[in-house]
Design goal:
The chain is mainly α. The protein is 42% helix and 9% strand. It has one domain (4-133): 3-Layer(aba) Sandwich (Rossmann fold).
Length: 134
């Protein structure tokens, strides 16, 4: 059997703590890609996720301008999870995973990030090794 690995590097943005409960429920309850899309097709600026006070202190370098971005990152992570369980892919030896390298000291992560780029890269390599070992 041929083993193919599709890797998606997720980001801290997809962590549920950066979403309001209404969007956490919509995303986590989705059982298919179609359902995920139906639940989250459009960002509702009138929802709690659209209120600036929800985002204070949470990755503040991006401010309050990115609630739809946070939702989209969580949706892509959920999509990777759904695809990783899709029998049409798994029966063909295709593995899909999402790996979060953590908040790394890079141009995007900034100088105060907790992890070095090397630590983030090691996390990615460990994730790949785990998937290939299955």
């Amino acid at each position: 059997m041929v083993k193919v690995l599709c890797l998606r590097i997720c980001a801290t943005w997809c962590h549920r703590e950066y979403l309001t409960p209404d969007y956490v429920e919509k995303i986590t309850q989705a059982k298919s890609l179609e359902e995920l899309w139906q639940h989250c097709e459009a960002f509702d600026p009138g929802s709690a996720m659209g209120r600036p006070e929800v985002h204070k202190g949470k990755l503040s370098s991006f401010g309050t301008a990115v609630p739809a971005y946070k939702i989209s990152k969580a949706m892509v992570d959920k999509a990777a999870s759904l695809l990783s369980q899709d029998p049409a892919l798994t029966h063909r030896g295709i593995s899909i995973t999402a790996v979060d390298p953590g908040h790394c000291r890079t141009t995007m992560g900034g100088p105060d990030a907790a992890r070095s780029p090397e630590e983030g890269a090691d996390c990615l390599f460990q994730g790949i090794k785990e998937v290939l070992a299955k």
